[in-house]
Design a protein that fits this description.
11 helices, single chain, elongated, mainly alpha
Length: 227
């Protein structure tokens, strides 16, 4: 994962845990109003398709992944089919997502593990998911939250990392630490949606190079605001 860009200004955290929680609550409320339709941007019809798409999304845009997965899933619609796929065929199908050799290996390995260990089903467990080839905690959180409706953690990608730092909700550039910093600040039932909100905000307003602070619904409470 790329390191988060530094905050635009000298971001200062609200003083005290209560103040930080209140700040987080206001951030969540405003983003929910601003992006009422925020959702997982990876096209999928089931947990297996979401798992494969999420593996492909590493170092790649969701838009590009969505262009690739229809052909992949048409040819290999389930773990059984993908586990038996020739590696070079999968490489050709996912080539435009980047790092295609390692991704193809992870996809076939993931499917094989599902067949051999879980009877072809995607397991609804963090411990089981992170044992699959190509799956780390971030990917597991995506699957648990969006395929199974389980809020076991918070997905931290580059957008979530950047937005969290600029809002002074964390001081870390490490994804694991950022997740641990965010978890106590937000209600558990909001964890999955929180990532979607931060990602949407990071794409539309809080962009990496020059954030559009003049249009930001958080500019009066953001310590990094330019306005």
């Amino acid at each position: 994962m790329a390191r988060a860009s530094r905050a635009v200004g000298a971001a200062k955290r609200p003083r005290g845990r209560a103040a930080l929680r209140a700040h987080a609550a206001e951030v969540l409320a405003r983003l929910e109003r601003t992006y009422p339709d925020a959702h997982c941007a990876l096209d999928h019809r089931n947990a297996f398709e979401l798992l494969a798409a999420t593996i492909l999304s590493a170092q790649c845009t969701d838009k590009r992944v969505n262009l690739v997965t229809p052909a992949l899933f048409e040819r290999y619609p389930d773990p059984e089919a993908l586990s038996a796929a020739p590696l070079e065929d999968v490489e050709a199908l996912v080539k435009t997502t980047g790092f295609f050799r390692s991704k193809a290996k992870s996809l076939v390995g993931m499917a094989t593990a599902l067949v051999e260990r879980h009877r072809g089903d995607v397991p609804p467990s963090m411990d089981d998911l992170v044992e699959l080839p190509g799956v780390g905690r971030k990917t597991a959180n995506v699957i648990l939250g969006n395929a199974f409706g389980r809020n076991d953690g918070i997905v931290v990608d580059t957008h979530v990392s950047r937005v969290s730092n600029r809002l002074a909700l964390t001081r870390s550039d490490d994804a694991v630490q950022i997740e641990q910093d965010l978890i106590p600040l937000f209600p558990r039932e909001s964890w999955t949606q929180l990532s979607h909100l931060f990602i949407e905000h990071g794409r539309q307003i809080c962009v990496a190079r020059v954030p559009r602070c003049e249009r930001c619904p958080l500019n009066d409470i953001c310590p990094s605001s330019r306005v």
